[in-house]
Amino acid sequence: MAKSDSKTVAKKDDNNSKDFKARSARERISLDDFVHRKGQVRALEEFKYRKQRKKVETAKALRSYRKVMKQVGYEAGQGASRKRLEISPSRHDEEDLDHSNVEEVEENAAAKTHKRRHKMNPFQKSVEKAEQKMVKAKQHEQQKKHNEQQRFQKLKDRKQRTKLLNKRTKRGQPIMKHMVDNLLHKLEKQNES
């Protein structure tokens, strides 16, 4: 019996090794392909890193540019043109220019600054509707609070009035003072409306 068991085990091992070889041959890639793919991935990662680094350096340069321009007394330009507009004329310019020249310089500076037109927002109507809804919701909430306060106050007054009307003398008779006050209150309410 031991010999037959060993033969079946050997057959199973052969089958497993054949399956493994067939599977691994299909899944295997050549060494050249592996190296080439690894190089592509590395190149892409390096490209992304360089691009990110360049963005950071550009942002730093722009920040320092704006800072220097502000210190010098100019307003930092925006976009590709980077036109410099003087915030206030320096002391040297005031001495050299008379008032008519200063006005001309200001007019030229105003003419040079181009106001950008804002792009039309395709969702403008939706935004306005949403804002209107928010305003209505706030008004509704305030109205609700106000109504709740009024209801609470009326309830409080009613409880107080009931308490006074339920008061009795020693002999169990209602106190007429409170009854008369209640009737006067009702008459005043009728005259108001």
Keywords:
single chain; 193 residues; mainly alpha; two-stranded antiparallel sheet; elongated; rRNA-processing protein FYV7; Fyv7/TAP26
Describe, in short, the structure shown.
This is rRNA-processing protein FYV7. Residues 83-102, 126-155 have a biased composition (Basic and acidic residues). The protein has 193 residues and is an all-alpha fold.
Topology summary:
Layout: H1 2-27, H2 31-72, E1 74-75, E2 85-86, H3 91-96, H4 99-112, H5 124-165, H6 176-192
Antiparallel strand pairs: 1-2
Low-confidence stretches: 91-97
SSE-based structural type = mainly alpha
Kindly estimate the percentage of residues that lie in beta strands according to DSSP: under 5%
**Helix-strand topology string:** HHEEHHHH
Largest sheet: 2 strands, antiparallel
Strand order of the largest sheet: 1-2
Number of strands: 2
Q: How many helix segments?
A: 6
**Helicity level, as a percent range?**
over 70%
Overall pLDDT confidence:
78
